[in-house]
């Protein structure tokens, strides 16, 4: 039983490590083109907020500036500040 738990833990850790590596944390995220999975990788943004961002974008058109992301319900100044270096608009 202990061996199974150990192997399961190793698989989980490997999955997490490879998932984070594929997110490219140093790469800027274009909030006008990013999908739910990409947006959900931002700090303080889960799947629900990512879907809200895309919904807002579809209803109101592309974001003109990164700070316009603050117009999305649930996205506050702290979230913008935390992710400022990772966000861009194109």
How is the topology of this model organized?
Layout: H1 2-22, E1 29-30, H2 36-40, H3 47-60, H4 77-83, E2 87-88
Parallel strand pairs: 1-2
Task: Write structural notes for this entry.
- With 90 residues, this protein is mainly alpha-helical.
- It has helices at residues 2-22, 36-40, 47-60, 77-83, and strands at residues 29-30, 87-88.
- It has a domain at 27-88: AF1531-like domain (DNA polymerase, domain 1), CATH 1.10.150.280.
- It has a two-stranded parallel sheet with strand order 1-2.
- The longest helix is centred in the first third of the chain and has 21 residues, at 2-22.
- The radius of gyration is 16 Å and the shape is globular.
- The model is unreliable at 10-23 (pLDDT under 50).
Features:
mainly alpha; 90 residues
CATH class of the domain at 27-88: Mainly Alpha
Sheet of most strands: 2 strands, parallel
- Given the C-alpha coordinates, what overall shape results? globular
Strand order of the largest sheet: 1-2
Count of helical stretches = 4
Query: Level of helix content?
Result: 40-55%
According to CATH, the fold-level topology of the domain at 27-88 is DNA polymerase, domain 1
CATH architecture of the domain at 27-88: Orthogonal Bundle
Radius of gyration: 16 Å
How many strand units? 2
Give a brief outline of the structure.
The chain is mainly α and 90 residues long. 52% of the residues lie in helices and 4% in strands. The N and C termini lie far apart (52 Å).
């Amino acid at each position: 039983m202990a061996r199974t738990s150990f192997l399961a833990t190793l698989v989980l850790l490997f999955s997490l490590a490879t998932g984070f590596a594929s997110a490219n944390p140093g790469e800027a995220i274009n909030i006008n083109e990013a999908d739910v999975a990409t947006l959900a990788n931002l700090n303080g943004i889960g799947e629900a907020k990512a879907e809200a961002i895309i919904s807002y974008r579809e209803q109101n058109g592309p974001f003109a500036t990164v700070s316009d992301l603050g117009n999305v319900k649930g996205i506050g100044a702290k979230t913008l500040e935390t992710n400022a270096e990772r966000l861009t608009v194109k």
